[in-house]
Amino acid sequence: MKEVIVLIGNYGSGKTELALNFAFQAANEGKKVELLDLDMVNTYFRLTDRGNLIKMKEIRLVSPNFVHSSVETLSLPAEVASAFALDWDTVIFDVGGDPAGATALGRYHEDFAALPEGSLKVLNVVNTRRPMAGTPDKLLSLMEGMERHSRQKVTGFINNTNLARMASADDLRDGYEIIAEASRRSGVPVLYTSGRPDLLAEFMAEERDPRFVGAPMPIETYMHRDWETFTREGL
Questions:
Q1: Does residue 42 carry a pLDDT above 60?
Q2: Quick check: is 1 in a domain?
Q3: What does the alpha-carbon distance between residue 143 and residue 8 come to, in Å, rounded to a whole number?
Q4: Ordered strands of the 215-218 beta sheet
Q5: What is the mean predicted confidence (pLDDT) over 169-173?
């Protein structure tokens, strides 16, 4: 059965990084993977920034029209329909980082509704170090807005709390407390806790309620923020 993963969350939560990690993990397992960039808001640190690496993994990438051009208004390509029409093993959507950005997903509501039961995961990637997700109230308000605009219900949280290169296990600990409360109040389970392998191992070694931890997901960093590394690796 086709697995469809939709990643939503506010700007800077780490959706694109996680989209790459989910996609590469599936490709390494020999699965046929399609990766779709539905972010119509953020023009920086897009999936297309790692186009050659994605191609090397034999993953099909679908991006908005006019990405990395001088045209400021992006549009969705017709190829998005291939996510539903073709025989992929795993399909991953990276969706815009606010309620307005989630609107791009809403136009495919009927296609998602036609998927077999159990094949769709809508995952809210949460970085509580971001102001809009810094409290349970803010997190839930943002999620409700994205659900309304995307016409999808979130099926799980990912605790991806970090401060980029300054990240520590304390980020995951603090994120756990906020996301656990949001999970209690909303009924949405925590399905994953993600982070750098060393920090994640330290966090997972501690005793916590497993309902609010989920599966550990060590991630590699592909979306480099420094210009020297970016130019050295190329596109």
A1: no
A2: no
A3: 9
A4: 60-62, 33-38, 90-95, 3-8, 120-126, 156-159, 190-195, 215-218
A5: 97
Assigned domain for 3 exists: no
DSSP for 113-133 reads HTSPTT-EEEEEEE-TTSGGG
CA distance 31 to 53: 16
pTM of the predicted model as reported, rounded to 2 decimal places: 0.88
CATH label of the domain that carries residue 194: 3.40.50.300
231 belongs to a structural domain: no
Tens digits of residue pLDDT in 64-94: 754 544 444 456 778 899 999 999 999 999 9
- CA-to-CA dists, residue 212 to 15, 173, 195, 197, angstroms: 19, 11, 15, 19
Distance CA 94, CA 113 (A): 18
Domains contained in the chain, number: 1
63 in Cβ contact with 77 (< 8 Å): yes
Confidence band of 231 (pLDDT split at 50, 70, 90): very low
pLDDT category of residue 188 using cuts at 50, 70 and 90: very high
Give the closest residue to 42 by CA, choosing from 127, 101, 107: 101
Domain membership of residue 19 as a residue range: 11-224
Which of 166, 136, 165, 159 minimizes the C-alpha distance to 209?
159
Alpha-carbon 173 to chain mean position = 20
- Let me know if residue 159 belongs to a domain: yes
Q: Is the dihedral of CA 210, 127, 40, 63 positive or negative?
A: negative
